[in-house]
Design brief:
Layout (H helix, E strand, L loop, with lengths): L3 H12 L7 E5 L7 E6 L4 E6 L11 H16 L3 E6 H6 L1 H29 L11
């Protein structure tokens, strides 16, 4: 961990039993050096801490803001859900609640997709059956 905010959120997430241990500083793009502060690659969920939101930090201005927009858009195109959290959200517990809710939602979605896949394997639609039209 590189910042106090990252350490604080990491500690909060470890205290919640439903949140698996995240990968820190996860590189998600094949050709760019972009990293997420925290990520669950198997669930395609990431967290980015937006520090300096009240102090006009570098990432809330000009070219840094635009670069972050590009990063988040490329992540979305790649199927990632990126939760953006602020200092206040970490301090008051909203950030860890967002993470917990998103992890649970993604688990439910994946379980549903697996169920649909298994149903299709057991009884494939007619257009997938041999000779079907």
């Amino acid at each position: 961990m590189t910042t106090e905010l990252e350490r604080s959120l990491d500690w909060q997430m470890r205290a919640v039993s439903g949140i698996p241990t995240p990968a820190a500083e996860h590189r998600f793009h094949a050709t760019r050096k972009w990293r997420f502060d925290f990520a669950w690659p198997d669930l395609k969920v990431a967290v980015e801490i937006e520090g300096g939101t009240w102090t006009r930090g570098a990432h809330s201005r000009g070219k840094h803001f635009e670069a972050d927009c590009e990063k988040y858009n490329e992540a979305a195109i790649g199927g990632w859900t990126v939760l953006r959290v602020t200092t206040d959200m970490i301090d008051d517990g909203r950030a860890v609640t967002f993470v917990e809710r998103m992890i649970e939602r993604r688990r439910v979605e994946y379980a549903h997709e697996l169920q649909l896949y298994e149903m299709a394997q057991a009884d494939p639609p007619a257009y997938l059956k041999e000779g079907g039209r």
